[in-house]
Amino acid sequence: MELFANQVLAGIATGAIYACMALAVVMIYQAIDHLNFAQGEMAMFSTFVSWQLMQWGVPYWGAFVLTVAFSFLAGIVIERLLFKPLAKAPILTNVAGFIALYAIINSVAGLIWDFTIKQYPTPFGSSPFLGSQLISTHQAGMIGITLLMLLLLFFFFRFTRVGLAMRAAASLPESARLVGINTSWMIALGWGMASAIGSIAGMMIAPVVFLEPNMMLGVLIYGFAAAVLGGLSSPFGAVMGGFLVGVFENLVGTYIPGVGNELKLPIALALIIVVLVVKPAGLFGRAIVKRV
């Protein structure tokens, strides 16, 4: 029973990171109807920025805040310079743009910081949380930071004018334009927020997977899986999908004989395929009917 509880709590901790990545993916998907294949590399580059700031003597939380702000601005700049001109381009053109952005960011990070593995500090420590052997203080910190961020996002989208405008621009862009909402800038803000959320995921997972230019590839795949499982039309579903994928992969790796780290992802993806066959919109998504 203790092993089961340990794996569930560890799964919730890693699932919190998948939830952040899935939420970032869904925010951009709802804005432009495309999956951002460079989301993980954007998070990785931001994590390197925070590491560099700490190397220059900036305290952890100061580097954390500065990196989130940098990521927010960088997301807006990327949308304005690259994807705004591609707004009416064919789907494959956008896909090529995302792949190019992925390769560029990965190469630039390797050029600046090289491809060697670096230690990334944790502000929470790695000792048992409250004396329990079930979860470490860093895992508890990952969960706490993620839940705090989700709570702030909930209040932002529910009770602020900008948040409500962003929701309107994402769900009903034509109607939003008719009431005076600048949907173009709402999309840019969505990019900025998705980039900032991704940077938080990168900084939280870096002490676990270590810091190097390819660190977020596996996390991004799990983030995509979580977003599809929960529903690309539902930010709440993406978050729940992240936690479900995190717990499921841990339990699969523990209780199914012969399954190592190499097979956990294929089995998780197989489960998602089964779910999508039954419910194509995802567990929490809604089917969208278009009038023709």
Specify the biggest β-sheet.
none
**How far is it from the N-terminal to the C-terminal residue, by CA?**
54 Å
Number of helices: 11
- The helix content is over 70%
Helices and strands, in order, run as HHHHHHHHHHH
The general outline is: globular
Number of strands: 0
- Roughly how many Å is the radius of gyration? 19 Å
The residue-averaged pLDDT reads 84
Residues in β-strands, percent: under 5%
- How many domains, as an integer? 1
Secondary-structure-based class equals mainly alpha
The parts where pLDDT drops under 50 for at least 5 residues are none
GO molecular function: transmembrane transporter activity
Membrane topology: Multi-pass membrane protein
Family: Belongs to the binding-protein-dependent transport system permease family. LivHM subfamily.
Keywords: Amino-acid transport, Cell membrane, Membrane, Transmembrane, Transmembrane helix, Transport
